[in-house]
């Protein structure tokens, strides 16, 4: 039997659990699909409302790295099949112009390595699918905010463009509007930022290093959602060997040979407005083990805002 590279988790369109178990226990599974993938599968199996998705194994990461960052034979076909199945499960197509499926792409090593590797959110957005998101939600600001976030994260994580360039653009737009918070920018402002961000992408991506985004010799932000997905998956695998991750593993005595999984998961949005939020929660206080709810959150934000510390969070205890 050939090695399995992709494991699905969550429910199908009819509400049936279709989780594929990667090991006899969560502890065993984490060596195959990483800690995040193993726990997503376990939560799905016990009936918690986990957004569906699939995990590409840690062993695939190692094989990819050992193969000169080239996909081993047959792996991309298996990933494409998993994506097609996820689309069928959700009744949506990635990047569809009428009702788009959007996904996150996250790393997930066997050991927790917070902030060391990379994440891309809102993948599947382009100039057509953003209109579909507006049509389905009736929330133009949310759609353009999600799109500008995606362009920013994809440019930084996948193409290595400095995040400060985008933060400077946001600061300039806020100054132009006379506001202090990102959340005070309206839909038109965010649409302007998408255009601005694509210009930053074009000016800072080397098409010799990234010929897949070259058009007539210029870097153009990719509109093909399946190309977006493949490049993001490759970037997450590549992040296993970035300088931050290597140093973290060395300091924490984590072997380089373990690899990381890639988790592709249907998006849930914390940036839809004042009734949406994102946060980090613990069932115990991680500082002293006290049996109490612990964590913090942000209203009208996405997870990277909490991790990046660009806004002041609120404690869950409040």
Automatic annotation (TrEMBL):
Keyword vocabulary terms for this entry: Pyruvate, Transferase
InterPro entries: ATP_grasp_subdomain_1 (IPR013815), PPDK_AMP/ATP-bd (IPR002192), Pyruvate_phosphate_dikinase (IPR010121)
Superkingdom field: Bacteria
Transferase found in the keyword field: yes
MF (Gene Ontology): ATP binding; kinase activity; pyruvate, phosphate dikinase activity
Domain Pyruvate phosphate dikinase AMP/ATP-binding: 32-70, 75-313
Enzyme class, spelled out: transferase
Record EC number: 2.7.9.1
Protein name: Pyruvate, phosphate dikinase
Organism: Lancefieldella parvula
